[in-house]
Write a structure and sequence with these properties.
By secondary structure, this protein is α/β, with parallel strands linked by helices. α1 packs across α3 and α4 crosses α5. It has 2 domains: 75 residues, no CATH class; 189 residues, 3-Layer(aba) Sandwich (Rossmann fold). The protein contains 11 helices and 16 strands. β13 and β14 form a beta hairpin.
């Protein structure tokens, strides 16, 4: 999970403690930056007081940058692979998300799903061991987790890390690292780029080697983001076709991608009155100033199928009909951790009645 923000302790401390309680956490692994935050008097006292009120015991916190020296291997210490860990229903990693109204979503990922996510990234972005990988902020979920923790090992390339603290203090450090190590594919969020553009000039480094800057979004991409990034970093030789939006979801970090399409975003204006009736009707923006402006999210990546479905009838929508996005991919998470709600079970076992019945 993401580190505690000392400016949001009334929200983050209870959320942290409920994760500890619900998942029966026995140990907390942190790096030096997070360890420093956790030991601050304000933070530690707030967590201690909240834990007493909630009657939750706080487990030991271990700084992974200061591990004790160990002369014995895993086999000597009795740590062996358990076959049950590789079973399909056994979680390997749990991603925790919080919605705007502070509801927690826990996504369960097994080993097969993690490998499939890496495969989709590698094949879609044409990643090889010749170019290193870079991880920075948002490293606990989604694309950030894959680039920070897994993809370097998966493609056999070194992984460079930029601390979120360093990025917050000096956003240019991220872009200098991208230029110095000739990173070909990396990720960012709209908030990251907006903060960087407001805090630093777009010069002093060259980004001609960066071929794929993936801007992850879980909704409609901001229509002015592409133009802002292109103009701000124009002096760095960043190719305009390297700025790509990625449609991401809590259950699949890459649903659609503009990576390596080599064209600028395609724009469309839709009639709002038609949308209210469930219809998609393109209009001329000069004739309808109230039209909704959209940009495409790119193409479906490898090993993925999409369908626009009427959720009431579970049948494919017709051309121009508004519907839900149903996704079939090995890179999709298969369950919410600990959820027994019937609605969640239906979401992961959807069937399109008039489509390919094998999907």
């Amino acid at each position: 999970m993401a580190p505690i923000d000392q400016n949001r302790l009334p929200e983050d401390a209870p959320a942290f403690l409920h994760v500890v309680s619900d998942f029966k956490v026995k140990a907390i692994l942190v790096n030096t930056d997070v360890d420093h935050v956790m030991k601050q008097k304000l933070v530690s006292q707030h967590i201690k007081q909240s834990a007493q009120v909630l009657r939750i015991g706080v487990p030991a916190i271990y700084n992974t940058t200061k591990p004790p020296k160990q002369s014995h291997g895993c086999r000597d210490l009795g740590f062996t692979m358990n076959k049950t860990w590789l079973q399909e229903n056994h979680p390997a990693v749990i991603w925790t998300h919080w919605t705007a109204d502070q509801r927690r979503i826990s996504v369960q990922l097994n080993h097969d799903t993690l490998m499939a996510m890496c495969k989709v990234q590698k094949e879609t972005c044409q990643m090889t061991s010749a170019r290193p990988v870079l991880g920075s902020v948002r490293s606990t979920v989604g694309l950030g987790f894959l680039h920070t923790c897994l993809l370097g090992v998966y493609v056999g390339a070194p992984t460079y890390l930029v601390s979120p603290v360093d990025f917050a203090q000096n956003p240019a450090s991220l872009f200098v690292a991208l230029a110095r190590y000739k990173i070909k594919d990396t990720y960012a969020t709209g908030q990251m780029l907006e903060y960087a553009m407001s805090a630093m000039p777009g010069k002093g480094f060259q980004l001609q080697e960066l071929k794929n800057l993936m801007i992850a979004t879980d909704g409609r991409p901001k229509v002015d983001m592409y133009q802002k990034v292109r103009l701000h970093f124009a002096a760095t030789a960043l190719d305009r076709t390297a700025i790509n939006t990625i449609y991401s979801h809590v259950l699949n970090p890459m649903v659609a991608s503009r990576s390596y399409m080599c064209i600028e975003p395609i724009e469309l204006w839709l009639d709002l009155r038609a949308l209210r009736r469930g219809m998609v009707y393109p209009v001329d923006p000069d004739l309808d100033p109230t039209a909704l402006r959209l940009q495409d999210s790119g193409m479906v990546p490898v090993n993925t199928q999409l369908a626009i479905v009427n959720p009431e009838t579970c049948t494919l929508c017709r051309v121009g009909e508004y519907g839900e996005i149903w996704i079939q991919s090995d890179a999709c998470a298969k369950a919410f951790y600990g959820s027994k709600q019937e609605f969640d079970l239906e979401r992961f076992n959807g069937r399109v009645f008039d489509g390919d019945t094998s999907v």
